[in-house]
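Predict both folds.
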Amino acid sequence: MPQTWDYTAPLIRMVRSKCAENLLKNVSTNREHYNKYYGLHIQGEIRRIITMDLYDYIKNISSPDYTLKEEAQKHLDNLTKPKDSLGRLEEFARQIVCIQGRLKPEIEKKVIFTLAGDHGVTEEGVSAYPKEVTAQMVYNFLRGGAGVNVLSRFAGASVIVVDMGVDAVFEENEDLLIKKVGRGTKNFVKEPAMTKEQAEKSIINGIEVFETVFYKKGFDICGVGDMGIGNTTPSTAVISVITKIEPSEITGRGTGINDNVLNKKIEVIKKGIALHKPDSSSAIDVLSKVGGFEIGGIAGIVLASAKHRIPCVVDGLIATAGTLLGYNLNPEVKDYIFASHRSTEIAQSEALEFMGLEPVLDLNLRLGEGTGSCLAMMMIEAGVRIYNEMATFEQASVSKSAGSI
């Protein structure tokens, strides 16, 4: 995080779409505070930003500062160890240096976004669990009892739960953001999962989520995960369309379905794709026809993280499908992404290969929620700690190898 704040910068970097409306409401209710710190012109500036659209926001995402890569490598090579002996931990440190644009990187504040939504395609019997489990798990997250809660505590990260489209109404909670686009998607075997307007809104809502938490609490790294019964079906459909790989080759068992349900799931995905013929070059078209609200929200968070030069650790199949949509909108996001792990779901591996991403871990995980992001985040932080805290040869009065002189 920056050590000092330019209080006009948030206006310039603010989401150039309707996601500025939340800040505008906040300004209206906290006028004295904003007048003191920002000046009276802020509302006019935000209203101007609201008129801009999603594509204006994402088109100017720039690459990390790779001019620092060589200097970061020199520092790593001068630490008290054989060259490259810490393997990918060194790679993670180099990448964080370039993302943050400074030779003294830091990872202190961490957040996991767990996005939830329901899916109409569950009507087809593609999941081992009933739809009601989505809402029940949201309450479990808020009580701190889910896998992501346990691992986030271990990783020192906070968890923000986001209702992107759960078929339920939740009470207010400081750890829950309501960004509901609809109460579940439609059954894409019969009709498009959502309208194109809803698809764009789901991405914008994801950007809003990032912006809201970033400006309110600040963080140095984020992770994304999901919750949604049946959501491996739309995620696999999204990946199948964009990678142009047949559903039969990449569809997995999700929550542990048997052979009969797996075959049904493959046919459902095939039927939905054949019915709607989504355009693989258009993230909005793919999302609207066979996607999910939380998948779109994840795409928004990925785009916002790249816009703000914040590393983003993505979880398994569903988070990877959302990342793939963000990549489709602007491939520059790839350099800000860490793929947390290789899922047991084949579609996730194919999507990672399509984007050229190598997973941090391979632990046969398939839970979702952001559990993989928590684990990988610790590995990335370990790399940064090595970079910052390990002594150099000179500091430790240790002789270098003859080959390094």
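Second protein follows, with its predicted structure tokens after the sequence.
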Amino acid sequence: MAPLTVLTWNLQGQAAEQVGLSAVLARHQPDLVFLQEADASALAAEPSNADWLAHSYTDGAAGSWPGMAILSRLPLRRASTLRLAPDIWDRPRILVASVAHARGELLAVCVHAKAPMPVPFLHAGPRNRQLADLTVWLAEQSAPGQQMVVAGDFNAVSWRLDGLLDAAEAVGSADATWRPIGVPWLPAVLRLDRVFVSPSIGVNSLTVACASSRSDHCPVIAEIELGDGRHYGPSLMMVSPPNTNGSSI
């Protein structure tokens, strides 16, 4: 099948047009989009985003304000907000979707880990526990032939997910993705945003498009090649937490 283009981007709570989302979508034509700090109503209000809103899932209560989203040009068979251990996660910070493609289904996981603030080296504990818990959950979903893409704002300059490949490292790239203020001319200084893939998925390229972004985060675009996948079984059914605002648009 044709390569699949995946994009992840933290919009810093800005309106889609203010941050430059439509221009980035038009230029890179991603098949699967992971958004953090994204306003669902603003996404839906922009007609040029229609191709990516045909199959989508958003939750205004997930991650940091104003929410998170998975947009897809491929059908989503299931989608949900995932809540793991409540003593570790201060709020829902993971969206999960099963994406239908020619070879089966792809598990798409959008992540926005807690920022280690106000002093990163003193306040990294909650984020580290969240990412460790996520790693355990992902391992529980793993099975021969199953494929997944895990992408988002990990708020960590150095983190690996056991059993998955960092797409940037797979192509020998380690470009930074975050800068202190969201101006297109300012170079990024930290790599906080990542795309991880199953070992059976090939990575053709990875681009960090800072010059296209008015957010403090830069869009990260990976072109991947899916291997032979299989249908996900009942173990991957996703359950929304009580009182979630998750919705499809």
